[in-house]
Each structure stands twice: as C-alpha cells, then as structure tokens.
Amino acid sequence: MYGEFYGFSEKPFTITPNPQFIYLSEHHREAFAHLLYGIDSHAGFIAMIGEVGTGKTTVLRTLLSQLDPEKYRSALIFNPCLSGEQLLASICREFRVSPDTCRDFGWLDALNLFLLEQHQAGRTVVLVVDEAQNLTPDVLEQVRMISNLETVHNKLIQIVLSGQPELNDLLNRHDLRQLSQRITVRCRLTPMSMRDTGEYIRHRLKVSGCRIPGLFSTGAVKRIYRFSRGVPRLINVACEQALVMAWTQESITVTPEIAARVIEIARQGSGRRGIWQRIHGWFWAGR
Which CATH number does the domain 26-189 belong to among 3.50.30.30, 3.40.50.150, 3.40.50.10490, 3.40.50.300? Predict the structure, then answer.
C-alpha cells in the first residue's frame, strides 16, 4: 500500500511489539531503571504497573535483551491464566528444568536445585510475569512460595510482576498482604509527553526507512497526541490510519486536517463498525 509511496522498508506503526522499533521515552527509561535496580540489588519482588497500551511489554523485552546471558538467566511468562502447578511447570520449562516427578514438590525441588546451581555460578535468575493482573490469589501465593527459595544472604530468584492497575487492587487484598509487603521496588509506567510523542513518531519513521523530512506535520503530531494522550498503542493506530489517508490523497505530508479527519472517524458514533472501530475496540478491551 503506502509503503512504496513513502519509501518504507516496512510498516512503521504496527501494534505488534517489535524490538527493532523500540523507543524509550523519559517515563519508559525511569521504569527501566527501577527494574534494573531491583534486579541488581536482589530485591526479590518488583512490580511495574501501567495502563493498557503504555508499553509495559516493550520495557520488559528491552530489559531482558539487556541482561548478559553470562551473568543472568531469565524467563518470561506471558500467559499467566494458569493454575499454581501449571505456572510452576511453565517456569521450569522456560528455564529448561526437568523434575524427577511431575507433582508440585517435584517441580519446586527441581527449581530450587537450579537456582542454587546458578547462584553458585555467580548468575542472577530473573522471572518476569507479564499481564500479572490475571493471576488468581492462589497462584500469586504459589509465586510467593517460589520467592521463599533463598540463601542466608540473598534471594535466589528475582521476580518481576507486570500488569494493569488491577494488579494493584489484587495485591491490596488482605489475604495477599504477605506478598505485597515483599514487593520492595515498585514503578508506574505512564503515557508519554507531547515531546516524547513527537520523538516516538519520528523514531519509528526513521527506523522504517522514511526519507521524507517532516512527513508528520507539527500540527498533526499535536492532534494525535491529544487524541492518544501519549499512549503508544493508540499513537500507532492513529498514525497508521493517517498514513493510509495521506497516501490515498497522494500527499507527502500528514497534515493537521488529515489527522483531524482520521480522529473524527475514530470518534464517530455511527452504526458502521469499520476497521478503525474494531482496532479501537480491541485496544479498550485490553488486547
């Protein structure tokens, strides 16, 4: 479609996380620094809270890519809708750990042995659970039990819980107070500023191979920022649709008028449910 017209090597505003397009805003860098500090200080439990689409998964994938495999062993669990036993089994599989038996104590014993071996080798083990707001209280209790694996001086595993604001509500439950008290490092990922939104758009265009200076006008960026409120996923959706409309008009600039028209279509309350409305619906549904 518009890729050849604008000279893109690939589409710049897909909503699928792509490490090649990573841009860390000021807020993202702050969250990244908190996570790294918690891991390197062996805090044990770390929590990152952020609204839908603010880039939590991007920060986590950036973090994991920065961990030297010679010094760290890491695992990412991104489907936490599991029972306690299933979660423990998934963790072991991610670390390529095989127990002697498939019962709970078999998985836990095997994991403990793995953690002790890594500790003796001078490595830090990091477990990241994304979308942690979907964990049930009994599964979170299983996670707390995993965190009990420790030596006299250090926690053997550093656990990062990342999720939407509902995770805070979950952790504030009275029956989970033991877990909540163990979270010593907490950070909140908030939407980007106007300045970072502009830099984010320019960064993605540059990575995609764009050679057209000022493809998105200042006025268009301002309108997209006001619409998206600095949420990366909504920025991507708005920019994608703006590029499509600009291409259909054979315009080498996304003007404020084009951005306004795209946003107007997004907000229309008509009975028609086009692709924009479906994408917007997926966003607010948390997809």
Answer: 3.40.50.300
